[in-house]
Amino acid sequence: MKKMTRIFGITIIAAVGLAACGQTNTDHKNHESTKEKKTEKKEMNQEVTAPKEMNAGASEDLLTTSLKNVTRLNTNDPLQMAVLTSQTIWPATHKENQPGAVILVPVSEWQLGIASADLIHHPNNGPILFIEKEKVPEMTLKEIKRLNPLGTKDGTQIMVMGDVGASSLEQLKEYKVKQIKETDSAKFAKDVDKEYADITENYPNSVIIGSSEEEGRLYTTPAVNWISHMPEPLLYVEKDKVPEATMEALKVRKNKANIYVLGPEKIISKEVEKELNKYGKVTRISGETPTENSVAFAKFKDEKTKFGWGFTKPGHGLSFVSSKTPDLAIAGAPFSHMGKHAPVVLLEEGKASQPVYDFLATIQPKFKDDPTLGPYNHAFLLGSTSDISFETQGILDERLEIVQESGKGHGGH
C-alpha cells in the first residue's frame, strides 16, 4: 500500500451561474457582414480542437484546485479518494443524508470493486471504501464512524466484499456485517447480482457484460458509474469465454435479458457475443480506445429499455479520471448515485484528446440572451495535478462553460 499523502484542501464550487454580465447589447444580427459570419464559423470550428495558446504560469501560486465548472478531488490515493467521495456525497449531518450500508472492498481487487458498485444504489445507499486483506485502514475506520450507517432493511451496516482476513472482520465487530466471500470474478459478480435481487425482490432485465481480464480493465471501468446509478448489474466474461457463473446469472432472466456488451471485439470477441445471444437481446457499446469507449457509453441510450446515459445535449454532470489511475473511478462511483449523476470519461494518460473535445462540444450549453436560465454542466475531476494537470483542468472547465449561441461570449448579453 502506498503511503497516503496529506490533503491540503478541497473546495467544492457549485456550477450554478458564475456568469459575467457585460453591457446591454443591441441585436445587430441583420447587420453582420459576410466576413464576420465566416470569422464566427471559424471560431466555432476551433472550439472542438485543443487550445493553440497556453499560459505557462497559470498553475503557479494556486490557492484552489477547483474551478467554476470542475471540482477536483485532489489525491491519487484510492483510500483517500473513497473517503473524499464519501464525505462529498454523504455529509451524514442528519438521518436524511446518512448512508444505509458502507461497502468495503479490497483495494487490490478491481474486478470485485467494479462489480460491487451495484450495491451503492438504493436501497443500500452507501459508499465504497477500501480495505486491505488483513487490515481495515485507520482512515476507513474513521470514515465509517463518521458516517454512522443507519443499516439496511435487515440491519446490515457494513457489506464486506471478498475473502478478507479474520483480523479485518474483528475491527468491524461493533457493526452488523454481511460478507460476500467469493473471489472468482464471474462468481462474485453473480453473487452481487443475487444479493441485490434478494434485497429488492427482483432481478432487473438489463445487464452489462464487461471483461474481467487485465487487457479489458479500462474498457470495463465505465460500467462502475452506471451500476451505481441504476440497479442493472455487471457480469463478467473473458475475451473468448463466457464463464458458467455468468450463464447462470443470465438464465434467471428466462432468456429475456437485455444484454449490453461494453467494449470492442478485441476485448470481447464476436464469438462471445454470439454465445450471449442465447440468453436475450445483445447490444454492443464500444469505442476503439478506452477514452472512445467511455465517451460511447456516456452518449448511448436504448430508448426502448431506457438503459444508458444518453448524454447528447447540454446540462449534465461528468466525472473525469486518468487512464493511469482507474482505481479512482471505483472510489468515485457514487458521483453517479446522487448529486450530478455523472458518468465517467477516461482521459488518455490524464489529457484531453480529440474524442473528449468532440463530446464536450455536443453538450456545451448555449444561451440566447440570459445565461442565468442555464442549463449548466459540471464535472468532478478525480486525481491529483500530477495525474491530471491544472492545464487540462482549465481546458475542461472552459469547454463545459455555458456560452452565447451567437458566439460572442458572455459579453454579448
What topology emerges from the helices and strands here?
Layout: H1 34-46, E1 70-73, H2 78-89, E2 102-106, H3 110-116, E3 128-131, H4 138-147, E4 158-161, H5 166-171, E5 177-180, H6 185-200, E6 206-211, H7 217-220, H8 223-229, E7 234-237, H9 244-251, E8 257-262, H10 270-276, E9 280-285, H11 290-299, E10 317-322, H12 327-331, E11 344-347, H13 354-363, E12 366-367, E13 378-382, H14 390-400, E14 403-404
Parallel strand pairs: 1-13, 2-3, 2-4, 4-5, 6-7, 6-8, 8-9, 10-11, 10-13, 12-14
Helix pairs in contact: 2-4, 3-6, 6-9
Assembly level: single chain
Report how far the terminal alpha carbons are from each other. 53 Å
Low-pLDDT residue intervals, each spanning 5 or more residues: 1-46
Strand order of the largest sheet: 1-13-10-11
Mean pLDDT across all amino acids: 89
Determine the structural class based on helices, strands and strand pairing. Answer: alpha/beta
Shape: globular
Number of helices: 14
> Major sheet, described briefly?
4 strands, parallel
Radius of gyration: 22 Å
Helix-strand string: HEHEHEHEHEHEHHEHEHEHEHEHEEHE
Amount of helix: 25-40%
Give the domain tally: 3
Q: How many individual β-strands?
A: 14
The portion of residues forming beta strands comes to: 15-25%
Structure description:
- Residues 24-49 are annotated as: Disordered.
- Residues 1-19 form the signal peptide.
- Keywords: Signal.
- It comes from Bacillus mycoides.
- This is ArsR family transcriptional regulator.
- By secondary structure, this protein is α/β, with parallel strands linked by helices.
- The chain has 3 domains: 64-79 and 313-413, no CATH class; 98-182, Rossmann fold, CATH 3.40.50; 184-289, no CATH class.
- Helix content is 31%, strand content 15%.
- It has 14 helices and 14 strands.
- The strands form 4 sheets. A 4-stranded parallel β-sheet has the order 1-13-10-11. It has a 4-stranded parallel β-sheet with strand order 3-2-4-5.
- Helix 2 (78-89) runs parallel beside helix 4 (138-147) and helix 3 (110-116) runs parallel beside helix 6.
- It is globular and about 60 Å long.
- The termini are far apart.
